């Protein structure tokens, strides 16, 4: 187990933990939450042994294997799949020693190392690494690319895959969902649920925490408090404690009144739509949990627009893409004041392309895009953070867009985004990603937009800021179009969903649970198929018969291959059985026969390695065969 006793941890002049206590048992999955800068990452460094406690004890089992998600990449020339395999350090050691032994024709060492490799599941390692990469959104082509060919966000995905590849008793993940889309997050949830070891997870995604963890460790006021259950249970328990304080209670009532008013207005406008119902439930849940955040440093609103057009924006027969390459065709979208739309769709389907076109960053390749006379767009995307002036302070950024406003008014406004005192006057150069995202949102909120286009606005934001953003969006009177992997934000601030997939933008009649099921079906449809029929051909009976005939023709060689592999496996099993019979002879272990024993062990190791290769090839052949058979059955219907 992990046991921290009377622990004090200090980084420079800042004391992060003082007299802290914590016990985690093997197999527990805990989320580590707390304000930015409270010491969560430092606690991870302590558990990894990179730093020591300043006082007290940090005890972990000596034989525990610890895996963690690295924050840097230093091997840019490695192939992506090899980089992931590097996460299994013991596997790489055995493979390296095996190569040396084989070059030296050292039969005994080769036999021993093949046994070690088998114990490490080394013969399936490449397939397992590729499965991890596929789950995190990498295509087969991307798996063969150099690490240096990927952007920063995709390199973080590689680091995550490397951590998951490493066999471990303790897995430490620091913000693993920051650079993932919703598809990859759902896959990661499923993977972590099946992880047998102890998990400690830092995340600002409340739905992700609820799905994965069974305990929450709260770092507050230099202490660690362990709560049973997921993040929602933690909020409820903490809210009950805070509600006992009179000052907290008064602020809680003000928040509750605001949210009740919003819920009443929302219920009056929409009571039948499925998404509306789920949103009302989310808001009612949020009302219950809001007291847990009475000490949040964030409190802001989007300033009300001076004028509004209706519609704000109208796109007809839109052809959207880059250069001469269309990503989306025949897009029809009209945004009216008060519209609240969430964009769903697999990675790379065109969600960001749509938002960039609406924001004016990309010209439409075709169709008609009409903007309302009084349209004021507030656009948030990751490149907005890079566009900030590194040498300018938050106050100076705001003064540039509001030159006639009183300085105190601007400082008060920035205070709602937790830029207070000297922090208002410090240059952005050394700001964290979360601080830059807050400043970008502050600049948008000041601009009195009547249309918000938000592309992953919660990246880098902590839980308190995400809650404040959710409440500000609920109070916003204009239109909202948002792409986000934060399901809580989507459920709490949108009324309807649009699905971006297969080059089209269509209404999605369902909630996020329905979308998760749709994704499973979509991935199944995207699996390689032998038929190249077009949609029109599928309605043609003659084309169906031709396709079925072609599939039967393709079935034959795969069937022969599977039978050949099965036959070869049978012969190999007989050889292994013969070797095992000989190894059972006690006389073989006499010193005079040591050479014979060594050769026999080496042959056994070689055959076991070949057995693993054949079994994997046979299973792959069966999968292809079954896939083709399903296609044949579908074509014959």
Automatic annotation (TrEMBL):
Keyword Nucleotide-binding among record annotations: yes
Top-level lineage group: Bacteria
Keyword Repeat: yes
Domain ABC transporter: 2-246, 300-527
GO terms, molecular function: ATP binding; ATP hydrolysis activity
Signal peptide (residue range): none
Coiled-coil region list: 548-617
Family matches, as InterPro entries: AAA+_ATPase, ABC_tran_Xtn, ABC_transporter-like_ATP-bd, ABC_transporter-like_CS, ABCF, P-loop_NTPase
Alphabetized UniProt keyword annotations: ATP-binding, Coiled coil, Nucleotide-binding, Repeat
Pfam family, one: ABC_tran_Xtn
Cross-referenced SUPFAM superfamilies: P-loop containing nucleoside triphosphate hydrolases
Family classification: Belongs to the ABC transporter superfamily. ABCF family. YheS subfamily.
Name of the protein described by the UniProt record: Probable ATP-binding protein YheS
Taxon lineage: Bacteria, Pseudomonadati, Pseudomonadota, Gammaproteobacteria, Pseudomonadales
